[in-house]
Amino acid sequence: MATGTTGGLLNAEPLQSYLKHQLLRRYIIQFVQKLAHGTDDPLTLVDGYAGNGRYDDGTPASAELLLQAAVRSLPGRVRVVMVEPDPESFGRLHEVAEEYREPLSGQLEVLGTRIEQAWDRLVSDAAGRHVFMFLDPCGGTLSMDQLVSFLNRNGRRRYPRTELLINFSGFLVRRVSGQHAAGYELRASVLTDMCGGTWWKDLVDEDQVEHPNSYENSFTMISAEYARQLNQRTGYATVAMPVRARARNQPVFYMVFATANPVGLWAFNDAAARAQQDWLVQEDLVTSPNQPSLLDPDETVLGMSKDEARQVVHGNVLQMLSKTPRIGPVRDHTFGLLDGAFGLLNETEIRAELKAMRADGLIGLQTAARAGQDVITRPS
Ligand SMILES: C[S@@+](CC[C@H](N)C(=O)[O-])C[C@H]1O[C@@H](n2cnc3c(N)ncnc32)[C@H](O)[C@@H]1O
User: Of the candidates 50, 59, 83, 363, which lies 20 to 30 Å from 16 by C-alpha distance?
Assistant: First the structure.
């Protein structure tokens, strides 16, 4: 008999994973479509902590989402590599992957090892190719030094593209922060390696003064600083996006994204905004299954309504135009335009605000085939 919210399925998709997967699915399709034909060698998608590949009810998990994106390209143009050391998960993953071997012209590898053991080969096999690396551990992951040298693999050249999406785990950070505050340092070195230094301890110590015995705030601060350090050490644009199990809960983890490419950043914002919208609908269905929808269309998990986000963009555009006569294409100015509202408005919604500003005579706007190519000017 069905029990609980999972309907009796031991392996069903929790809400935080729903958001993670919507984000991954939406972003990776754009990445593959844009780049599958960009280099002689096939681009590489890596799922470094792959899990089972698919849920018991048939819902695709991360590995199958990568496989699905790969088969939407011409055979042989995308290579998918998955890593999963747990024998049971590896068996299930392998079964899912085999369904895709032929459509992918054999450009598929499933490794039954820990990623630490496979890392050097993963990086050298991806040399000269665009690569998207998804790292989704349950706790600790590779060191900051390893990730920095991976992102800097082409020196100052940013081509072929190198992108990372990391699950930065609240479970690990809260637990280790709590141990640190209590004077134990059991897993501290794991977090220190991941963070590339002991700076996280200073953040915990500072925050304990204001929030004793709570690690929510320090988790948020450490996640933001983690993304900032990745940016500082690579020059890549980085983003830390909170992922919750319920709208009003604290984040379970942050998805940290790194790209050196303006188009990648614009596309990630679009994927994040759409994924959050998908998630709000799903969260409402799961938490209030027998009630009329309580969903406020303006509500978002980032604490700002769509209208407020449009106001933020409105203000940013006017401020940017006071300093420069031309902003374009807009996709080269994602952080400037969305400062304070990243991940809240998809590209259609951003364009709608720009068109409203043009109609009010506040800006000039040349629209293009794709919203990211629009150009904003001062009004004539
Ligand atoms: C959170 S689950 C992955 C979920 C999956 N990425 C998804 O979205 O459906 C983490 C997985 O990492 C695996 N794992 C644990 N340690 C690992 C390591 N050192 N290297 C690679 N995978 C590891 C675990 O067995 C587990 O299946």
Answer: 83
Round the CA-based radius of gyration of the chain to a whole number and report it: 21
Ligand 1 centroid vs 81 CA: distance in angstroms? 14
Asked if residue 83 has its Cβ within 6 Å of ligand 1, the reply is yes
Per-residue pLDDT tens digits for 226-267: 999 999 999 999 999 999 988 888 899 999 999 999 999 999
Distance (angstroms) between ligand 1 centre and the Cα of 136 equals 6
Amino acid at 14: P
Question: What token pair was written down for 287?
Answer: 């938490």
Strand duo 375-377 + 364-366: pairing: antiparallel
CATH of 15-285, one of 3.40.50.150, 1.10.486.10, 3.40.50.10540, 1.10.8.100: 3.40.50.150
Instruction: State the pairing for strand pair 131-135/162-169.
Output: parallel
> For ligand 1, is residue 112 a contact (CB within 6 Å)?
no
With tokens 């190198």, the residue in question is 162
**CB under 8 Å to 336, separation ≥6 — which residues?**
316, 320, 327
Share of the chain above pLDDT 70, in %: 93
Amino acid letter for position 286: V
pLDDT exceeds 80 at position 351: yes
Q: Could you tell me if residue 82 is left (phi over 0), alpha (psi between -120 and 50 degrees) or otherwise beta?
A: beta
Q: 0.85 exceeded by the pTM?
A: yes
Is 294-377 a CATH 1.10.3470 domain?
no
CA 254 to chain centre: 8
**Nearest C-alpha to atom 4 of ligand 1 is from which residue?**
51
CA distances to 303, 314, 344 from 308, in Å? 10, 10, 10
Quick one: tokens of 302? 């980032």
